[in-house]
Write a structure and sequence with these properties.
Elements: E1 2-11, E2 19-33, E3 36-43, E4 46-53, E5 61-69, H1 71-78, E6 86-95, E7 98-105, E8 113-118, E9 132-135, H2 144-147
Antiparallel strand pairs: 1-5, 1-8, 1-9, 2-3, 2-6, 3-4, 4-5, 6-7, 7-8
């Protein structure tokens, strides 16, 4: 069982030239309640099921468990998922000692791009690239489980 510590930011500039990898991701939620989200995902050519617990006060730390499962099983489970599918491309971008996961969303979340950096401690220092914008760690509307319920297109 693992504790995930990450901080999330909006992206305000061009990052793609710095990316060293990109992967298409499609995911849905079997449960999106904050106390326990259960997500199924196709990431590239692999399938995963992930369970996440509720975040701490800052929103930067929470329990996470993930297991690889066959893609066919993910597709079957997506049939049971709550309405709304998240479709995005994840870009990996190195900045100093850390790698940012930058997600560019499609469909109902088109126009939204966010970056996350995983840390070993909430107060760990990290390099902030020029394209990194406002921090939104802990802001529930940016959680993928919330983007399927209230997508970015509805925010305007």
């Amino acid at each position: 069982m693992a504790q995930e510590i990450e901080r999330k930011f909006l992206v305000k500039g061009d990052f793609k030239a710095e990316a060293f990898k990109e992967t298409r991701i499609t995911q849905g939620y079997l449960s999106s309640v904050p106390e326990r989200t259960v997500r199924v995902r196709v990431k590239g050519d692999k399938g995963f099921i992930t369970i996440k617990g509720i975040g701490n006060a800052s929103g930067a730390s929470r329990f996470e468990w993930e297991k690889e499962i066959p893609v066919e099983e993910v597709r079957s489970l997506l049939e049971l998922a709550e309405p709304g599918v998240i479709d995005k491309t994840r870009f990996l971008v190195k900045a100093g000692e850390h790698t940012f996961e930058v997600d560019e969303f499609y469909g109902d979340n088109e126009g939204l791009t966010v970056a996350e950096v995983e840390l070993s401690d909430e107060n760990e220092a990290f390099d902030k690239p020029a394209w990194l914008g406002e921090e939104v760690t802990g802001d529930a509307k940016y959680f993928n489980s919330m983007l399927m319920k209230n997508p970015y297109k509805n925010w305007k």
